[in-house]
Amino acid sequence: MGGLTEANLKSLSGVRSFERGLGYLDAVSGVEIGDGWVTATVHGTERYEVELTLHGPGGLSGECDCPYGLEGNFCKHLVALGLTVLAQRESLPRQRKAAQDRVQDLDAWLSALSKDELLALLREQIADDRQLRRRLELRAACARDDLAGVRARIHELLDIGPFARCGCVEYADARAYADQAGQAVSAIGALTRSGRAADAITLARSAMKLLAEAVESVDDSDGWLGQVGSALADAHLDACRTERPAPEGLARWLVGHVLGDLDDLTGVDPLDYEDVLGERGMSALRKLAIEAWRCNRTGWAEKDLMERLAKAGGDIDTIIAVHAADLAPNGHTHLVVARELDNARRPDEALRWAERGMLEAGDLSIVDTALVDYLCDRYAQAGRLSDAVAVRRDHFGARCSLLAYQQLRAAARAADCWSTVREGALAVLRAEAGRRHVGWYGGQVLVDVLLDDKDVDAAWRTATETGADDRQWLTLADQGRATRPADSLGVYLRLAESLTKQTGNAVYEQLVGLLQSIRDCHRRLGTPDEFTAYVTALRTTQKRKRNLMRLMDEHDL
């Protein structure tokens, strides 16, 4: 076990998972040690099975069936097992020898039993273990070629009844149900391997329907049934590759499945069946997809299937036709088409689609900003800087936001016309501010814009006339403190007064920051004694706030 070290555990898990694993040392039980592996059970939110594996000198990996571990992460439960094993390092050889002896003893005892004794033992286990009984019933039905029996057993395995409470399978029982449902998938795969792929196809499709019905009543927050659905899709594909069903019939089933309600769970991809369908089947698949799309041009599933088939065949014109049949009013679909045309090396058509998107959007306040960015980038690349400015100006006029102003400024500076464009943009914001009450959206954006331009005096005048929020007043005071210390002092005092009525360390840090700014203003004004009197009075009224007093001491306030 040389590769199992505390350093390796910390490196694989990260600091946070390692530290959390320290809290699970008492939750580790049932440690078993083999040749290069260690398994155990760790009790967390649920009971999780964990396994550590050594790979030569220094190599270490692990698996855990907790949600975090199933994503491929080295989780806290693996850390707990590793640390437990390290704490028991001296006893490891003895534990391993004991485990091997137990296996050998059990094997020897079973080998010595007669057939009748083994059957009696097995019947005893079947009586106590429902899942074992169902697995064996399924294997028995497969062995005697009893398709009806296999179907009945699969129906039982997918039945939520034994796990449901008030008609639903709760989170705590979802894993157990998914494990049972997984046995049905295994049975279907076994049918294919035993030369009964046609039956496997039939049963896989039936199981997909049953699983889709079941998932509506299961709290599958951890995605266990999603994994079962994916495995079921794989089993169906394997059976089809073995059996080679009629291409047209398979194409018809695939289209019906993908456009139905079952695909969300199984994720069946018709393109995975291309080798089974062959040229004739793919032709039928495309024909059926087109017919379905023509009947419902705005259906998401129909559009997605058409687009995927068209992309697989390199048919850019079909992709455009699919999107053109259902254009979004904000121009997003136009942008999608433009990018597809760019990828197909048809830039002129791509530009026309982007321009069309801007024209057809109508209300530029809701247009997809990515479309605006795309069009302006294309104009800039072509040297059409004035056109880029025009688009940015129209977009800014509709949005009146700080970001739109910044983008307009960048475009106008590139075109060397910012001074003229800026006056027009500010006029738009002033008109917006004039139409609204003080402190509303227009006035605040105008203040932000002027601050962004470093025009502090104009920003201060605007804030006084049209209103500003506390964030803007604080920025104004910070930027104007050197030239307007008296005005800034008034802002800081007002904001500080509000904070003195609140509690919490975050509030205290903000208040101390304001006190430092207030002290700087008094220094600039030549009134340090006034600051001393202010702080003395503040300490008197706030003396019960010990954390605030400590922070003030740390900053010499």
Describe this structure in words.
- The protein has 29 helices and 4 strands.
- With 557 residues, the protein is mainly alpha-helical.
- The chain has a 4-stranded antiparallel sheet with strand order 1-2-3-4.
- β1 and β2 form a beta hairpin.
- The chain is flat and about 105 Å long.
- About 1% of the residues have low confidence.
The gist of it:
By secondary structure, the protein is mainly alpha-helical.
User: How many helical elements?
Assistant: 29
Radius of gyration: 35 Å
Instruction: Indicate the structural class.
Output: mainly alpha
Q: Residue ranges: pLDDT <50 for 5 or more in a row?
A: 437-442
Largest sheet: 4 strands, antiparallel
Strand proportion: under 5%
> Strand tally, please?
4
- The best one-word shape is flat
Features:
single chain, 29 helices, flat, 557 residues, 4-stranded antiparallel sheet, mainly alpha
Topology:
Layout: H1 6-13, H2 15-21, E1 28-34, E2 37-43, E3 47-54, E4 60-64, H3 67-70, H4 76-87, H5 92-112, H6 115-128, H7 130-143, H8 147-157, H9 171-193, H10 197-215, H11 224-243, H12 247-258, H13 263-266, H14 274-295, H15 300-312, H16 316-324, H17 332-343, H18 347-361, H19 369-381, H20 385-399, H21 402-414, H22 418-434, H23 441-452, H24 456-466, H25 470-480, H26 485-499, H27 505-525, H28 528-541, H29 546-554
Antiparallel strand pairs: 1-2, 2-3, 3-4
